[in-house]
TrEMBL record:
Organism: Lysobacter enzymogenes
UniProt GO cellular component terms: cytosol
Protein origin, superkingdom: Bacteria
Record key words, sorted: Signal
Statement: the UniProt record of this protein carries the keyword Cytoplasm: no
PANTHER family, alphabetized: UNCHARACTERIZED PROTEIN YQGE, UPF0301 PROTEIN YQGE
Record-stated family: Belongs to the UPF0301 (AlgH) family.
Taxonomy of the source species: Bacteria, Pseudomonadati, Pseudomonadota, Gammaproteobacteria, Lysobacterales
Entry protein name: UPF0301 protein LEN_3739
Signal peptide from the UniProt entry: 1-20
Amino acid sequence: MPVMPTPLASQVLIALPALADTNFSRSVALICQHDDDGAMGIVVNRPSEYTLGEVFGQMGVEGGDEALRAQIVLAGGPVHPERGFVLHDGGARWDSTLAITDGLFLTTSRDILEAMAKGEGPDHAIVALGCAGWGSGQLEHEITENDWLTAPADAELLFQLPLDARWHAAAGRIGVDFAHLADYAGHA
């Protein structure tokens, strides 16, 4: 599947400290798709109340080592909170996969979870329940209203850093230190 470049796809949105929406306060969201109809992304720094083992159990997927089953599932956003989204490297060999970049993919089909449980999944993957969505022009408006910063995404940010470090780290990638912003003063 060829990668179709879009204006913000493969960028992360970094919520500015003044963003009051509880769904997105201090969030980092990877934009997976962006076109004239709007944008779709996955929040990559919010834990859900579920582990991957619990999701496997609910879906009747067997297998997976202890570390995989203990992996925290992310709260990917307020849209379709009952749907699973797997953000991963390793190609588009699963049934329902969107290529975000040449090396980053989003899959929504069950077969990737089954492959992960068998030890045959991608090298790096995060699972999220729900996604974030913006209507036509909405995201662009929110950016001009200073709700979000944008930065390039990278594998370390998406797959390796602890969840609670991703917001500051994403901002740091573009030289922003939230501790020096007036709206951030007094927030720990």
